[in-house]
Structure formats: C-alpha cells, structure tokens
Design a protein that fits this description.
Helix 2 runs parallel beside helix 4 and helix 4 packs parallel to helix 5. The protein starts with a strand and ends with a strand. The strands form two sheets. Strands 6-7-8-3-9-10 form a six-stranded mixed β-sheet, sandwiched between helices. It folds into two domains: 137 residues, Rossmann fold, CATH 3.40.50.300; 68 residues, no CATH class. With 215 residues, it is an alpha/beta fold. It is built from six helices and ten strands.
C-alpha cells in the first residue's frame, strides 16, 4: 500500500500542500494534472529524491518519510528513461542488484528471468544506441523491477512511443505489475492510457489533490 498523508512538498518557490493519496496493495494509481502542477514532485518525494516539509509517506504501513531512496524498496522509471550509454542491457538490469551486493549467481538468474519475461533476451549484449524506443522502455522496466520492489513509480514512461509500441508496453506493464502484486503510481497525460491501466485516479491542480476517484 502507498499512503501519502497530509504532505507538504517544497520545490523552490513552488509548494504542494495537504497531499493525500492512498493506493491499496497491488493496485494501480494514476496521477494526472497540467504540466508544472507538481506531479513529478510528488513522485520524487515518494521515491526519496525530494524531502517532505510536513506529513508522512508510508509503504505497507511503514513510515519511510526519512528513509534514503535505496532503503524504500521502490522501483522508479523516470520520463527520460535515464539509460547509460556505456552500459549493456544486461548491465542495466543487474545494476540495482549489484549496488545491493546480491550474490552473482542470483543476479544472473534474475537478469535471465526478467529478460525472458520482457522479451529482450536477445538484446542483453546491446547498448542503448542500438535499441528501439520500445526496447529501451523494456530495459528500463527490467532495471526498475530487478530488486523486486513493493512499489513502482512511473513518470510518463510511454510518452515518446508510437501507437503500436505504446499499446504493447501498456499490456506489458499491466501484466507484470499484476503478476508481481506491485503497488503502482503512474503519471500520464493520456486519458486512454489512464483508463487502460488505472484503478485509482488522482488529479493535481493548483498545488492540491482536487479529485480522487476509484474504478
């Protein structure tokens, strides 16, 4: 479960206050709003990349407000995907596990398992320059899922994809998050994307959550 309770988040002169968001365990939340409304700021606070001025953030009932990003067990897929040019697909997927000092044999098994699930086994030795948009998305998804996170945060990850690839990756995200019982918060501007994936909907406007609905 994701719980953002009575939070105030400061981003320079811009502040978002009284933010309350709750997404039950294993369910899919959609966060929408105009450009500059504070969507990414909320996601960054959840991931530990931005401090909370007031309020609490909880994952499965545990207060993680003051925890470092690496301690939160959250997978994050940023808007720009943030793949490293010098790293192969294999190295990207293994990255988080190596940081956490997983056993090498377990890392290899996990990379193999995710690559097969994401249909990128044949790309493990390639670097980002040799990948299509959809293949880059799958690689970034593998990296985010590798350490078996309880929560997944997605910041407009599909905005640059063509229609066919977009539909393909939507189905992939839906299946993977459901199979692994991952609680998800996803930012998007596309209503069709929101309707296909979402169960809980949050609209940010003028620094506040002004509408909350559940499917």
């Amino acid at each position: 479960m994701i719980t953002i309770k009575d939070c105030t988040i400061q981003a320079g002169k811009f502040a978002i206050s009284d933010i309350n968001i709750e997404i039950p365990t294993g369910e899919y939340g959609i966060l929408m709003g105009k450009t500059g409304s504070g969507k990414t700021t909320i996601l960054e606070a959840l991931c530990g990349l931005r401090k909370v001025a007031a309020g609490k953030i909880l994952i499965s009932g545990e207060d993680i407000t003051q925890k470092r990003p690496a301690e939160r067990n959250i997978g994050f897929l940023p808007q720009d995907i943030a793949l490293f040019d010098h790293m192969t697909v294999h190295e990207h997927i293994a990255f988080g596990m190596r940081i956490q000092k997983w056993d090498k044999a377990i890392i290899e098994q996990r990379v193999k398992e995710l690559a097969e699930r994401l249909q990128i086994s044949h790309l493990l030795d390639r670097k980002p320059a040799g990948l299509s948009g959809g293949e880059k998305q799958r690689t970034a998804m593998g990296r985010a899922l590798a350490v078996k996170p309880k929560v997944l945060c997605l910041d407009e990850p599909l905005s640059t994809l063509d229609d066919d690839t977009h539909e393909e990756v939507i189905n992939l995200i839906k299946n993977v998050t459901k199979e692994n019982n991952i609680t998800t918060l996803h930012i998007t501007h596309r209503q069709s994307e929101a309707e296909k994936l979402g169960q809980h909907f949050f609209l940010i406007d003028d620094g506040k959550v002004i509408r909350q609905e559940a499917k």
